[in-house]
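Bench notes, afternoon.
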Amino acid sequence: MARKKRNTSAEQPETPTLRQRVADTVDISKEVLLDTVLISCIGNRELSLENYKSILAYSDTCIRVKANPRAVEIVGAKLEIRSITREMLYIVGRIDRIGFQDI
């Protein structure tokens, strides 16, 4: 009998938490239930971040935002926070990259 090879790659898929499974089954916004960030983009020119925690760094080439579960880094050119509320950031400029970093 042939033995199956185990997947030893470093990037194993995460098993869903109880909160994630509940969010999948009920009709509630996942970002609200999971207390996580929601990112919406319009092309590479506009971006909104909902449910963020705070702004960690701000320049015209890089904006870092504390969010749950990781920090969000927006890299580009002529970046500008056009609108800011307690729940949402609206960023404009040329967005080259969006990344996630451990806090």
